[in-house]
């Protein structure tokens, strides 16, 4: 996540033509294709990490908080995952329970709230930047949330193979970086490839929940999710397919910034068939 209010274009100027712009860009690939037909995603959805790993956040996690941290084998980059590694939820949480994955968890506002309200569920917070991951780990420790684990990783690599098929009860992506400039749209996390991988990881009846305050990105999310043959819109007849606000999501810093800037919050909810 990045501070969306630092972007000069607030997105409202492109809102009326959001759907037309997507259609003009050409057809969106089907997200329901077989996994082997999809090449590994080459463009990352996040900016440089090195400048953010400073001060207290650059240090290793203290031993008393180690239980909250997932330390996977790494690939060539610091945020990458080694080929063949698969997240073992039963081992990580030392219990079997439905798994909730939040991608781009930031400082943990949403995932910690959800974990506190749902102690019977396991929660994996995925964040690429150490400061946010560190705050989430620290708060999980302070609040004694034994059902939270934190993974620093490229989310595309995680969904692209490190989540076992049918292993996830719900996957949340709340207010991802909108990459508002047209030349940066290829960096947006939620695209047809991503949705296809999420569908593979979700259990039957599992839920994909999305939220954004960026109009064009919201329509892109709706288009690619609706194009996935393995997902169905939980709100097909409601206001163009938009979902009602998910009650399990607290009002986070990013949502407040979007509202303060006059942007509309769009929620989506799709269910694995």
Account of the 3D structure:
The chain is an alpha/beta fold. The protein has one domain: Vaccinia Virus protein VP39 (Rossmann fold). Helix content is 26%, strand content 16%. The chain has an eight-stranded mixed sheet with strand order 1-4-3-2-5-6-8-7, sandwiched between helices. Helix 1 crosses helix 7 (215-226) and helix 5 (155-162) packs across helix 6 (192-201).
Helical region count? Answer: 8
The total strand number stands at 8
Strand line-up across the major sheet: 1-4-3-2-5-6-8-7
Label the overall shape. globular
Count of domain modules: 1
Assign the CATH topology: Rossmann fold
Major sheet size, sense and barrel closure: 8 strands, mixed
**Alpha-beta classification:** alpha/beta
Short description:
With 273 residues, the protein is an alpha/beta fold. The protein is built from 8 helices and 8 strands.
